[in-house]
Sequence to fold (374 residues):
Amino acid sequence: MGSTDKSVASAARWTLIIGVVSSFVFLIGGLSIEVTEFGKGRFAPTDLLEIGILILLATPVMRVLVLALGYVRERDLTLALITFCILLLLSASLVIGFR
Amino acid sequence: MSLSHALVVFGIGSAAGFIGALFGLGGGILVVPALAVGLGIPMHTAIATSLICGIATSSASASRYIRLGIANIKLGVLLEPWTVLGAISGGLLAGMLPGLTLMKVFGVCIIAMSYPMSRGLREKGEKDEAVDDSILSGEYDDAASGGVIRYRVKRLPLAMGVSSVSGVLSGLLGVGGGIFQVPALTLLCGLPMKAAAATSSFMIGVTAVASAVIYYGRGYVSPSLAAACVIGVFLGSRLGVVVSGRVHGDLIRKAFAVVMVVIGVRLLAKAYGID
Fold:
């Protein structure tokens, strides 16, 4: 891979890491409060858990978006088009799920 | 959710993640039956939980494979539209089927998957020394051999078809699809095993989220259940990866294939009310 490829790959990698780590902060926090009831008055555990799950669901989507933007920057229009198609399909699944 | 219940779910997730990583499978193949049969969780919720677990573990694995340069990102991008389409179809189909039907389908599938598990997967990737720098070629530094492994991707249309099928299975049953994707990438497309596993892992997160969103929107996700299971599967799979290098053998793989058959029979028995 050329150096441009590596920067796109690195951006994708960090998107995944940040997504997983941040989701786990909310999941562990929410679950801890739920099962121990420590701090339950100050924090709603269900809200924290929902946020954690939503971040986890968003993580692969953000990875695709980061790749799409990276390919646009690289002027690799074929791959940019394909990744935007993936985003379109994921948007469709979102609409289907909440219809 | 009570502490004891959370610990049980965490334990199930850890075991599933550990065993799954040991055999190169996702945790879903064990999480779903364990939750459905072991805890009586409704099938749709069990599948939704498994999908969420798959997103977490595959995202973590993929980040590592990207750093090592093993995952063929461009190939993954080419195949993802097909896995996503399959996953959406699978998710929609799952929504139309009652839980007991899904349990029967899962039981049959896991019994069917036990056969390739028992046979194992022999490295048949063709390593080309002289490959062009086309979109369908790849290379990575292989620590085991100390050299650079180069390969060319073949039969892409066939891989797209298999990716669609693995996507449907992912959406319908909550399994990662890797059990089809990895053999397809290795046997059909000529990828070395490591690249196939890494590329499959790279794709699983997007595949899983395509149907997970459908399950989530339809209210099948239990946040506390998912959280306890995700954390367990994640930690279990990390440990499984460490141990997997020290586990040898056909015998253990065959034993696990037997376990898969037992799980499948158990699922079918429950689905048909023979308990």
The two ends of chain B are 27 Å apart (CA to CA).
